[in-house]
Amino acid sequence: MFTTAIAVAAFLLGSFPTGVIVARRAGIDLRTVGSGNVGATNVGRALGRRYAVLVMLVDAGKGALSVVGARMLMPEQEWPVAIAGIASVVGHIFSIFLRGRGGKGVATALGAALGIAPLPALGAFLFYLAIYLPLRLSSVGSMMGALAFPVLLILLGLGHPANLTFAIASTVLIIVRHRENIRRLRHGNELKG
């Protein structure tokens, strides 16, 4: 029952629509600009890098706070932490404040991953940067970074079933949410930024 309460709280926290709120304060409806996505990449296209970094940090903070809070409430129990991480990512993707619409979950998943297993999460983020910086394709970097995280968990000996469940679930969610990007990549018209 307590785990359910933690999951609900993490879902609600994940649902907080950072990008929409930041863009609205600048007089922009983010859902009508660029890709229409509400995450940091599209915020960068609409408002610039400074705002994109702000949104990315807050969205990552939602995931980190969810798992750190779960760990504080239920110490030495891995499953509630993993469930909180998944719930925060699902909340970001299916925000109740945006009628079930949301972002792609990348920054929130990164924040949760940093709270669950910092070293593999940092490795996955570096993998993202290694792909994103030369190509300027955030979608490719995001998907590759997400795929790298469960591999790094195993390689670094942190492949507890709860950790892997979070890693695989968040990776699947991120890739499914990038299906339009995958289609654009196949047709050679993916948005850069």
The number of helical elements comes to 10
Structural class, from secondary structure content?
mainly alpha
- Could you state the order of secondary-structure elements as H and E? HHHHHHHHHH
Uncertain regions: pLDDT < 50 for 5+ in a row? none
Biggest sheet record: none
Mean pLDDT: 94
Helix fraction, binned, reads: over 70%
Instruction: State the shape.
Output: globular
- Report the radius of gyration as a whole number of Å: 16 Å
Quantity of strands, as a count: 0
DSSP strand (E) fraction? under 5%
Q: Give the CA-CA distance, first to last residue.
A: 43 Å
Describe this structure in words.
The protein is an all-alpha fold. It has ten helices and no strands. It starts with a helix and ends in a 6-residue tail after the last helix.
Features of this protein?
193 residues, mainly alpha, globular
Task: Summarize this entry quickly.
This protein is an all-alpha fold and 193 residues long. It is built from ten helices and no strands.
Topology:
Elements: H1 2-15, H2 18-25, H3 40-47, H4 49-73, H5 78-93, H6 106-116, H7 118-135, H8 138-155, H9 161-177, H10 179-187
